[in-house]
Amino acid sequence: MIIIFKKNAEEKKIEEFIESWKAKGFGTHLSKGENTTILGLLGDTSTLDANAICANEVVDVVQRVTAPYKMASRKFHPDNTVVTVGSGEGVKSSTFGKNTIGVIAGPCSVETEEQVVEIAKAVKKAGARFLRGGAFKPRTSPYAFQGLGKKGLEFLLTAKKETGLPIVTELMDIRQLKYFDDVDLIQIGARNMQNFDLLKEMGKVKKPILLKRGMSATVKELLMSAEYIMASGNENVILCERGIRTFDNYTRNCMDISIIPYLKRESHLPVIIDPSHAAGLRWMVPTLAKAAVAAGADGLIIEVHNNPEKALCDGEQSLRPEEFADLMKILPKYAELDGKRC
Amino acid sequence: MIIIFKKNAEEKKIEEFIESWKAKGFGTHLSKGENTTILGLLGDTSTLDANAICANEVVDVVQRVTAPYKMASRKFHPDNTVVTVGSGEGVKSSTFGKNTIGVIAGPCSVETEEQVVEIAKAVKKAGARFLRGGAFKPRTSPYAFQGLGKKGLEFLLTAKKETGLPIVTELMDIRQLKYFDDVDLIQIGARNMQNFDLLKEMGKVKKPILLKRGMSATVKELLMSAEYIMASGNENVILCERGIRTFDNYTRNCMDISIIPYLKRESHLPVIIDPSHAAGLRWMVPTLAKAAVAAGADGLIIEVHNNPEKALCDGEQSLRPEEFADLMKILPKYAELDGKRC
Amino acid sequence: MIIIFKKNAEEKKIEEFIESWKAKGFGTHLSKGENTTILGLLGDTSTLDANAICANEVVDVVQRVTAPYKMASRKFHPDNTVVTVGSGEGVKSSTFGKNTIGVIAGPCSVETEEQVVEIAKAVKKAGARFLRGGAFKPRTSPYAFQGLGKKGLEFLLTAKKETGLPIVTELMDIRQLKYFDDVDLIQIGARNMQNFDLLKEMGKVKKPILLKRGMSATVKELLMSAEYIMASGNENVILCERGIRTFDNYTRNCMDISIIPYLKRESHLPVIIDPSHAAGLRWMVPTLAKAAVAAGADGLIIEVHNNPEKALCDGEQSLRPEEFADLMKILPKYAELDGKRC
Amino acid sequence: MIIIFKKNAEEKKIEEFIESWKAKGFGTHLSKGENTTILGLLGDTSTLDANAICANEVVDVVQRVTAPYKMASRKFHPDNTVVTVGSGEGVKSSTFGKNTIGVIAGPCSVETEEQVVEIAKAVKKAGARFLRGGAFKPRTSPYAFQGLGKKGLEFLLTAKKETGLPIVTELMDIRQLKYFDDVDLIQIGARNMQNFDLLKEMGKVKKPILLKRGMSATVKELLMSAEYIMASGNENVILCERGIRTFDNYTRNCMDISIIPYLKRESHLPVIIDPSHAAGLRWMVPTLAKAAVAAGADGLIIEVHNNPEKALCDGEQSLRPEEFADLMKILPKYAELDGKRC
Questions:
Q1: Could you report how far apart the first and last alpha carbons of chain A are, in Å?
Q2: Of B245, B254, B333, which has the smallest distance from its Cβ to D256's Cβ?
Q3: In this predicted model, what pLDDT tens digit does every residue of D309-337 receive, in sequence order?
């Protein structure tokens, strides 16, 4: 960590400041220029609070050299983390972070048992390894359909039993956790990415967590939220890009493709992409899915609905089962070019 | 609501679509142009889900004419909502939304009993009407100081007793609510603005709610979050702008001053400004506070710390008590020009 | 175009307003609801100014149904525009917009004749079809290297002669045009995307134009800028995405991959990607290039430098010739999956 | 300037790198930590190109300590620059940057001689010190009204003669300069803020320049563009905030109020605000104007039209003369609180 002192800072106060760090066991290196005095702080600075240091009256600027996250950093964990998802009798588990592209598919919202079972069978047949479906739904409007809740989870579990697909669904409130015993992968949604109490609880859970990037979260903030979960005890975190908010709105969100290579380099955690929420446009989903695989994504989460016109939620971005099947025929060819398979 | 049909939509399906709305009791007006067929949907469309309509195969574009919020809209509630904050023996309550500028002041984090009591006395003397202080703190890093929690609330209550100032503090998780009995105004932070389960719970609480705008929330989303609280039973909501995220970072966030006149016109709820979090720079806070009052804000929430260099959190943006006192001498003059007082 | 009238608008003024449009030859359809009166305006509304209409005292909202661009729209020009670039003795021309991926490569800035000739030979050997190089350089700082100007163009022409590669370079000011006689493709940079006088001049030029998206230009604005060139007489426009500005800065800009499928659907013009300026990071360029091809780009423009450490400009984002050659071995495989070749 | 070396950088190459800076006359300070080696570069680093340094293979991060602008910086020019605008017989000149709020008012576009003279008289009577009016208009669409051009300038000059108000108008292309002899303040619009050739030409002009911030330009970029003009020979630059582009669109742009105190601290140049283009909404303009004055603006530029419903451009954001007169009655009271007058 580099600390630049204010021009008019008292010599004596700078000395006291430096001594306080030495006392905490940090190494220090002082550089005095004609205009600028700079302190290099050496040791484990990853958990220091740059803002708090900045409040000191002698300090002008604080610049991090090492990232503020540690457990999520590839620096301290050079090998890919491989997250296995799926357990229970008859369930076919699969991994994220190895040489397979894990495709999660299913309806935005669980609506009926028939619907979710039918879609589950269709996506399994097409090659999906996991079933998604929303039971507790975060909706901007209090008047919009809020999901079937506990009932929706039951329908998902039926589909899991009938197909053997591990299931992925969103947890919005810690009080819902009691219903999640048989869920295989817990999704923390974009709007809860910085719900820190919820993240801490996810650290105590014995299940992998799918952490979605907030719609205006920086990459650093996403990794800090992963760090919350990991520092609380759960290292099975999968990161998910689902589009960010920009000045334009020709798509619902802007899929930030660069985050894939960046996260793969900066962190050891698996990275997947949600092209459905990013685009918000059905016809664009397959193209974005191919680009994500070409960019090195470890997986995809795609909305599929058997009757998108009548979907209770996000129908305009859901693929029909046959469109999803078409996509699953071409995706493996892109995966292969990267030495992977779907 | 205006619905534009796709160019190649089947006549018969359009008719079915229109019939389905008539059956639900909506009025319809159809316009057929050479290139475009347009449906005007009449009735209470405020609670309809535009996205869901858009998923229908015959629909190209859906355009709202009326806002998707109702209880928060001035249209259905022309007079200002006046929110009274403060109760208990010896406590001096005050209002937001009338002709006073309600100034809330205090430390970012509660650190010790002495600290919060000393600051409380100082801000009261300077003219603040409410005391703020964080006990449960949302921090980006799991390694940063997370607040004193329950203990912090106790210190705040001591300060309340000693000064008679109503207290304002943040609730991050519904499980903390049991400690909030004597809190006067519950703050929902920017990162929880779309924690919908928490919002619903705030609707059941018998206390006013200070709802902060998310750092990339649109005005419409802010009002929808207020609507969540109101539709769940609590109409005492105060809206708070605390800066938004843009492409620049010379300030921590960009204080969106235009939201004040916009919200005052669009909604009947009181609107306050947090210049401390917006700027993140101590020296800029007084200027932004004056601008906010000139723009018609109903109140301000300002960080004050007796020793910002040693603050455990956000010291670089906290005013010293004497700086706050100076500001409180000039602010009433700006308030007066708008027919208000501090 | 849909016009929604203000609630309290005078009946008589609305009638006058409608008559004024009829007089101009537009068709009109009026819908009167209990709360809302809506006018559908029919005819060629693409060139109307929505803001100007909105200023009328009876008008509340104006909503476009048809796009404000016409010549750039696929609606009126269903087939792909194929732009041929390159002319002169010994020059090998190539196309954008057909079934080839046109790769443009070369240094950010032209520095010496030897440099640009050496790089030109290297990129040609690797498979590039066009040579880029900056002679007139837009630099944020007046103290930064501003390019070699006319001399730089001469060096580029030498490289063109020696390799037969058509050349691409940026025009910043209309007074430079006199030196561009032998340039094959004129680049209008991101900062000049809305330099409307320059766009009009580009309409009069008998050469294809490479129009880069401004760093915070919407897709609609990009297409309107293309429309400026086309409406002024030059239909050979190639659109280029080079990254947009968002709230995050882990890359220099955010490459907006979704713009490829969107532009290919909305317009008939070729679309290429500049992964070098988007990422600003050398190691990320090959990954983004692959993703762009997977998403359907018609070409790429990539910075290559034989000695990036000593580059006078943007060295940190330039590939070395051998890195570029490696990329050109894998890119055709992605192109093939889309039925194209490099 | 602080340079952090890559972890695995060769010792010998670091030494060469350091020697190269010493040879250029810079002072150097080296700090070696266990993980990090840091170089402090001392001397006049303001004109160095951080990106170019970053391209060196041994360099990991470059961090500026001093700003990259010099002539625009208050550090090297502690006193306010006072810009006087207006010259010619019968013309009443006024200043920006002293203790007056310079109000510029007039129509968005010049339409007829009668229109501009009538508005000029009205705004003069209300207290405006300068007349604005667009003759050359930057319009997003090639089909929108492009301004009267040279004819419009003539009408403005008539209004100048009749009222004695100095005139302000936009220059879009260097070829228009020949018509600007009697213009008092040349405006460089937001879309040309980084038209570097135009900026250089403005450095040679013997008139003050009104430089508008680009709609997504950082504060640093705005100051660098001012630096271009100043370094080319013209120190009479007035900076203008006119709203930035964010994720929300309830106003046309987001007026960034914090830029006023920031620029006043960081630079010595006058700062004015354009609330008309920022809001894009007539009713909001007076509120934003008051806030700007409360925040310390040195001036305002406000659109006034005698018949906004029929305006050829931006009518929806223009004040009527009587609305402007009302604003000019209240503004001086805000100015007075800041020790200024209108």
A1: 42
A2: B254
A3: 777 777 789 999 999 999 999 999 999 99
Contacts of A46 in chain B (CB under 8 A): 143
DSSP string, A248-268: --SSSSB-BTTHHHHHHHHBS
Predicted pLDDT at D33 = 67
Lowest mean pLDDT among A282-286, C17-21, C121-125, C174-178: C17-21
Q: So what's the pLDDT on residue D255?
A: 98
C77 within some domain: no
Chain D interface mutation, best of B223, B247, B248, highest count of D Cβ atoms under 10 Å: B248
C130 in Cβ contact with C166 (< 8 Å): yes
| Mutate: best of C139, C172, C194, C285, partner D, most D CBs <10 A | C194
Closest chain C residue to the Cα of D67, Cα to Cα: C141
Give the residue numbers spanning the domain of B210.
83-336
Residue of D nearest to C54 (CA): D316
Smallest CA–CA separation between A161 and chain B, in Å? 29
Residues of chain B contacting residue C45, judged by C-beta atoms under 8 Å apart:
none
**Residues B43, B154 within the same domain:** no
ipTM rounded to 2 decimals: 0.93
Residues from chain A that touch C284, judged by Cβ atoms under 8 A, are 258, 261-262
**SS3 sequence of D153-207:** HHHHHHHHHHHCCCEEEECCCHHHHHHCCCCCEEEECHHHCCCHHHHHHHCCCCC
Q: According to the model, what pLDDT value does residue B35 have?
A: 67
Query: Quick one: B139 and B171 in the same domain?
Result: yes
Do residue D127 and residue D245 come from a single domain? yes
CA distance B119 to B306: 6
Nearest CA in chain C to D221: C140
Whether residue B40 and residue C31 make contact (CB cut-off 8 A), yes or no, is: yes
Assess contact for C247 and B246: CB atoms under 8 A.
yes
Which residue from D244, D251, D334 is facing B246, i.e. has the nearest CB? D244
- Under DSSP, the state recorded for D291 is H
Q: Determine whether the interchain pair B29/C34 forms a contact, defined as Cβ–Cβ distance below 8 Å.
A: no
Give the pTM: 0.94
**In the predicted structure, residue A51 carries a pLDDT above the cut 80:** no
| Dihedral, A202, A205, A211, A217 alpha carbons, nearest 10 | 10
Q: The domain spanning residue D145 has which CATH number?
A: 3.20.20.70
Answer whether A209's CB lies under 8 Å from A188's CB.
Answer: yes
**Could you give the CA distance from residue D257 to residue B291 in angstroms, rounded to a whole number?**
8
Chain C residues touching residue A295 (CB < 8 angstroms): 287-288, 290-291, 294
Neighbours of A65 (CB within 10 A): 19
**Residues 6 or more apart in contact with residue A37 via CB below 8 angstroms:** A4, A5, A9, A14, A30, A31
Q: Which of C194, C232, C245 sits opposite D191 (nearest CB)?
A: C194
Q: How far does Cα A289 stand from its chain's mean position?
A: 17
Query: Do C191 and C295 fall into the same domain?
Result: yes
Question: A216 contacts in D (CB within 8 Å)?
Answer: 247
Q: Would you say residue D154 lies in a domain?
A: yes
Residues C188 and C325 in one domain: yes
Determine the residue of chain A that is closest to B136 in CA distance. Answer: A197
Which range (A203-207, B32-36, B311-315, D80-84) has the least confidence? B32-36
Which of B63, B93, B112 is at the close of a domain?
A: B63
What is the pLDDT averaged over residues A181-208? Answer: 97
CA atoms within 13 A on the CB side of C45: 26
User: Is C219 close to A248, i.e. CB distance below 8 A?
Assistant: yes
Domain count across chain A: 2
In angstroms, the separation between the Cα of residue D63 and the nearest Cα of chain A is 8
- Supply angle C-alpha A26, A30, A34, rounded to 5: 160
Q: Where are the beta strands (DSSP E) in chain C?
A: 2-5, 27-32, 37-42, 59-63, 83-85, 94-96, 102-106, 130-132, 167-170, 185-188, 209-212, 237-241, 271-273, 299-303
